[in-house]
Amino acid sequence: MREPDPAIAATCPMRGSDDRRTAVISGLGAGPEITRDAQGAWIIRSLSLARQVLKSTATRQAGFAAESMDPLPASIKRPVIFLEGHVHNEMRRGTARYFTPRAVAENYHLPMSALADRLVAELIARGSANMDDLGLELAMTMTAQIVGLTETGITGMAKILDRMVQPIRMQPRHPLYPLVQMIHGRVTFLRFYVAHVRPSIRARRKQPRDDVISHLISIGYDNPSIAIETATYAPAGMSTTREFMSLTVWHFLDRPALKARFLASTDEEKRSILEEILRLEPVVSQLMRRTLEDIELQAEAETVTVPKGALIRIDTRAANHDPAVTECPFALNPDRTLDTNMTRAVLTFGDGIHRCPGIYVALQESAIFLSKLLAVPNLRAAAAPQLRHNPQVGYELRNFTLITRPA
Ligand code: HEM
Question: Which of 120, 181, 277, 284 stands 20 to 30 A from 187 (CA)?
Answer without folding.
Answer: 284
